[in-house]
Write a structure and sequence with these properties.
Length: about 120
């Protein structure tokens, strides 16, 4: 059963592709290195926004929650484009995340059992 969150993200993923198909019709021909670098750049923008929210940097005005969420949205946009460029199925992302969480749980449980 799909939750509202899943439906919302599916619509968002679709909108990202629709936007690019309409305004950047040649986007699929651009080297995927562009998208991985753009993703890294957007992650950097999140880090910078968080730094400013924490009082770092030289900006007088703090970064708002909306501005931070915009940067987070940018990372999802480039993540989706990178997924598409790699011919991966974004609908399997949830399965991949759950599998990774399961692996991480197993690792942590093993550490706990060893008393670490
Ligand atoms: Mg940005």
């Amino acid at each position: 059963m799909k939750t509202n969150r899943m439906i919302c993200m599916t619509e968002s993923w679709d909108n990202i592709i629709k936007f690019n198909e309409k305004y950047f019709p040649g986007w699929r021909g651009i080297d995927e290195i562009y998208y991985s670098n753009a993703l890294a750049g957007e992650v950097g923008e999140i880090c910078n926004a968080v730094k400013h929210r924490a009082g770092g940097g030289t900006k007088e005005k703090k970064v708002s929650t909306t501005e931070l969420m915009d940067e987070i949205a940018d990372t999802f946009i480039y993540l989706e484009l990178l997924i598409e460029k790699q011919y991966l199925d974004v609908t399997s992302l949830s399965d991949a995340i759950n599998s990774k969480i399961k692996t991480n749980i197993e690792r942590m449980e093993a550490r706990n059992e060893r008393g670490e």
